[in-house]
Amino acid sequence: MPNRPILIGAAVLLLAAAACVCAPTLAGEPGAPKTDANPPAPAAPADPPPSTGAFTPGPCPFEFGAYDIDCGTLTVPERHANPDGPTLELAVAILRSPNRAPDPIVYLAGGPGGSAIWEVDIWLATPYVQTRDVILIDQRGTGFSSPTLNCPEEEEGQSNAVDRCYRRLRSEGIDLAAFNSAESAADVEMLRQALGIAEWNVVGVSYGTRLALTLMRDHGAAGGIRSVVLDSPYPPEVDAYTEQGVNTLRAFDVLLDGCAADPACSAAYPDLRETFYRLLVELEDNPVDFTAYDPEYDETIDYTLTGYDLLSEVFLAMYNTGDIPYLPKMIADIDRGDYTLIGDLYLGYWLGDS
């Protein structure tokens, strides 16, 4: 429901519009608009919007260098059961192979919420693109697709950010219940048909594996799937919202217990567990401002570190096995007021490259 200021503003605009309609200015009167003896020709009608299921070539969202990449958008129904209803525009990038086989790869990013197109550099560095086209699709609500479900309210640190974001998206007429695995799987199948691909190879990582499994379940009988790679499977029966907290705590225990069991690590950081959990509380109560130097761009950037930030950065760093050995030192450094390693994570660098 819109709030009171929006309703008041709308009422004011309606009253102003009514005043204009009720008191028109006649031609020739003071204040009347000037007439043109040669009025301009009427504007050409706008191009009709793309039909559902159509792939429309278009510019790429950012520069890819000299690589052969085609971009565009796929128009899909917000609800596939209602093909004549509202539509969404999904961003697509196709990495063209110099020696392409007939069966390309389609990549389903994780998250949920990750952007496949942002991961283009990773795919360009793989050998797969030498023999097959690689298709990157930003799933509905993510990346460069429209509408996006990103929440700038959270990035701006607004109070009740999630609730504010939810209310804003609802006020924009977005059917949030339509952003689910089944609808996304139907989008992926629609893309295959729109591109005229007989068979392709599906690669999913993390949440992308759940989407791949849903694609197999709902559309596998129609053919089109030559092979499927599930990297870090996330099965459909798993309830991540109830299990994530327990799994996160277990991951921290493995890290902290591993340091305690290692003679060198335990000698260097004998109170790592106590230090880590104490920092989470202290930084949440009293966030710390620090600067990080980015050598790639030769610039210094200001950051703020909260307890939640520390928890998130340690959790995400454990996805990269090369970062794990550096995490005890990073935690101890923060306790000493040294934010070099956490700054590297903020800047997007691997700790192993520090």
Give a verbal description of the structure.
Strands 1-2-3-5-4-6-7 form a 7-stranded mixed sheet. The chain has a two-stranded antiparallel ribbon with strand order 8-9. The relative contact order is 0.07. By secondary structure, it is α/β, with parallel strands linked by helices. Helix 9 (272-285) packs across helix 10 and helix 9 (272-285) crosses helix 11 (327-335). Strand 8 (288-294) and strand 9 form a beta hairpin. The radius of gyration is 26 Å and the shape is globular. The chain contains 12 helices and 9 strands. The longest helix has 22 residues, at 240-261. It has helices spanning 4-22, 120-124, 152-155, 161-171, 181-194, 207-219, 240-261, 263-268, 272-285, 307-317, 327-335, 340-347; strands spanning 55-58, 69-77, 87-95, 105-108, 134-137, 200-205, 225-231, 288-294, 299-305.
